[in-house]
Design a protein that fits this description.
With 70 residues, the protein is mainly α. The chain is 66% helix and 0% strand. It has four helices and no strands.
Length: 70
């Protein structure tokens, strides 16, 4: 099943540059596959200065996503 998501032009360009001849799905999965890498991923895409409350929400979402897709 596929989903349509909206991302900023800046994020799209970063993903497109990382993509090469691979699919966007592969690139995104590989970024999130390593659980220890999640803080680096958040920093890479501009979420490094997230406050504590927002980080807690992101971690809950991360866990839910990981359980479902990884």
């Amino acid at each position: 099943m596929s989903r349509l998501i909206n991302v900023s032009d800046e994020l799209y360009e970063k993903l497109r540059n990382m993509k090469g001849d691979r699919s966007f799905t592969f690139v995104i999965k590989s970024l999130f596959h390593e659980k220890s890498n999640k803080d680096e991923v958040l920093k890479r895409f501009g979420k490094g200065d997230v406050d504590e409350k927002r980080m807690k929400e992101l971690k809950k979402g991360w866990k839910k996503w990981s359980e479902r897709y990884v």
